[in-house]
Amino acid sequence: MKKLVSTLVLGVALAGCQTAPTEGAATQAAAAPAAAAAYVAPRGPDGKHPDLNGVWQVLNTANFNIEAHPASAAMQLRPGPYVPVPDARVVALGAVGAVPAGVGIVQGDGKIPYTAEALALRDENKADWINRDPEIKCYLPGVPRANYMPYPFQIFHSDKAVFFAYEYAGAVRNVFLDDPGEAPIDSWMGQSFGRWEGDTFVVEVTGLLSDTWLDRAGNHHGSTTKVVERYTPTSANTMRYEATIEDPETYTKPWKIAYNLYRRVGEDAQLQQFKCVEFVEELMYGHLRASPLPGPALEKSKQPLE
User: Fold this and answer.
1) Where are the beta strands (DSSP E) in the chain?
2) What is the pTM of this model?
3) Pairing relation of β-strands 238-246 and 226-235?
4) CATH number of the domain that 259 lies in?
5) pLDDT digits 0-9 by tens, 225-275
6) Range of 205's domain?
7) In the chain, where does DSSP find H-type helix?
8) Which of its termini does the chain have fewer beta carbons within 10 Å around, N or C?
9) Would you say residue 75 lies in a domain?
10) What distance in Å separates the CA atoms of residue 210 and residue 207, rounded to the nearest whole number?
11) Which pLDDT tens digit goes with each residue over 121-143?
12) Is the peptide bond before 70 cis (omega within 30 degrees of 0)?
């Protein structure tokens, strides 16, 4: 009987220990938006709006897949005897080529609202990732992908101009502060027009090439895409990033992503050079050598010209 009573008492005590953190976490989660809303950022160069200057970076896995995803053996898989295994072209990468899990950044139900045709294309992209992902060829990443790649970017903010510089591929964005009208031509990084809504910097991005992807999982957009970004400081070294994406050719409705950006501080708060075009010359043009090197370049050189 004493053992039974002791067991019951211990169970109640453990249950109390388990419940308290959950309630505390819920309270903290509920208080977070209020705390962010109460934060007043230092004023920027114009003396009216927050100072966005600094080097910023994400701490998430969205560049692998912006939807929630488990860890997997590789970006590109093939059927195995029991479970999918890495494709032959990436198997040698081992754990370096694996995909870490992520909670995703797509808001709502966590799924991109593709049309049936666009969803089929996403699946085709994913199945042929090594040939299709523009990141592999060092093409400019587009928006919003540039902001959640695993490289820092820097915002230069004066009272008359806002400029984004990205470490990856030397990508840049000049944000117009006066409405420039319709983009004259589609481009990799599109055309950006910014304005302030209180302490939030809102940027409308149009004129994006459909060649850019949203991540390494084959998620994509079309040629009529419009991205509306929102940058809101939430503490001295954090900023909330939100973006609404609409493209009636590709999605059944507008949808939203959101995550935190973190300011880099200290001696590493600076961009390094990662102009990767020269790093993919062998991949893209090795087959054009007078004497192609053994491997994929040599095999490709034997194929008929496309």
Assistant:
1) 54-57, 77-78, 85-86, 153-157, 162-166, 172-176, 191-197, 200-206, 226-235, 238-246, 255-263
2) 0.85
3) antiparallel
4) 2.40.128
5) 999 999 999 999 999 999 999 999 999 999 999 999 999 999 989 999 999
6) 54-59+109-274
7) 2-38, 116-127, 129-132, 145-148, 281-285, 296-301
8) C
9) no
10) 9
11) 999 999 999 999 999 999 999 99
12) no
